[in-house]
Design a protein that fits this description.
Strand order of the largest sheet: 1-2-3-4
Number of helices: 1
Shape: globular
Largest sheet: 4 strands, antiparallel
Strand content: 25-35%
Order of helices and strands: HEEEEEEE
Number of strands: 7
Structural class: mainly beta
Distance between the termini: 47 Å
């Protein structure tokens, strides 16, 4: 009985977001390749736009960065929230993990995105 609220949340995430994990993208912000990304470890990033007046708007949530992020059955896909930028090449480097099956992926994105 105590698991019912969690089960209801999972069903709600699947129905509304198409994935088990809720996309809260509340861990980090990253600018790369002309995009501003809101990130969470176990979800696809959200692409943001900052207006000239300082307003922030979500341009695209659950972005797979034009096919660059592989699909995952549990999360829809994931991108690490703690990437580092190579000072010599401008590439973004990170280690992303997935739960189904348990794997780790080394991501490298060119400086132009």
């Amino acid at each position: 009985p105590r698991g019912w609220p969690m089960l209801a949340s999972i069903v709600n995430n699947i129905v509304k977001g198409g994935q088990i994990c809720k996309d809260s993208c509340n861990t980090a912000l990253q600018s790369h390749g002309g995009r501003i990304l809101a990130l969470m470890e176990q979800a696809l990033p959200s692409e943001l736009r900052v207006g000239k007046d300082g307003s922030v708007r979500t341009e695209r949530c659950l972005s797979d960065l034009d096919g660059a992020i592989p699909r995952d059955p549990s999360t829809g896909g994931a991108l690490a929230a703690h990437a580092r930028q190579d000072p010599n090449t401008g590439e973004s480097l990170s280690i992303t993990y997935n739960m189904n099956p348990p794997t780790a992926r080394h991501d490298v994105f060119a400086s132009d995105g």
